[in-house]
Amino acid sequence: MVEVYEVTRSFPRPELYGLVSQLRRAAIGVMSQIAEGEGRLTPGEWRQFLSQSRGSLFEVEAECVAAEKLGFITNEQMKSLTLKVNRTGKALVGLIKWVRRLETSKPRNLETPQPRRPNHEASPPRT
């Protein structure tokens, strides 16, 4: 996500509301969908958001290809972005596999931790 923001700073001004906006939105989407999915109630919901995140990652890759073809990014920038997309994709696939295993195991513990209350009965009474 950070590299997408850095690279798109040098895009032509007319692309600000076009490819720049789309690329940045997709890059943020990868991260946001992972986070939102983690907060869901079931592993199945979580996996669905991870799947959406993976789709956004493919979108980032496709838009980078377009940016390179249009001459907005260099071959070196494309190589760097592709490396990061691939690394992120592998990590995401690993996380999806792990969440799939969770779906077939015990349910997630969704209880909100409660603050401990002091046990006043154990204290000697004040006189």
CATH homology superfamily name: 23S rRNA-intervening sequence
> Quick check: average pLDDT?
87
Q: Find the structural class using helix and strand composition.
A: mainly alpha
Query: How widely separated are the two ends?
Result: 63 Å
Count every beta strand, where a strand is a DSSP E run of 2 or more residues.
Answer: 0
Number of helices: 4
Helix content: 55-70%
Give a short overview.
The chain is mostly helical and 127 residues long. It is built from four helices and no strands.
List the helices and strands and how they pair.
Blueprint: H1 2-8, H2 16-38, H3 43-69, H4 75-103
What does this 3D model show about the protein?
The protein has helices at about 1-10, 15-40, 45-70, 75-105. The protein is mainly alpha-helical and about 130 residues long. It has a single domain (about 1-105), classed as 23S rRNA-intervening sequence (de novo design (two linked rop proteins)). The radius of gyration is 22 Å and the shape is elongated. The N and C termini lie far apart (about 65 Å).
Annotation keywords:
single chain; about 0% strand; elongated; mainly alpha; about 130 residues; de novo design (two linked rop proteins); 4 helices
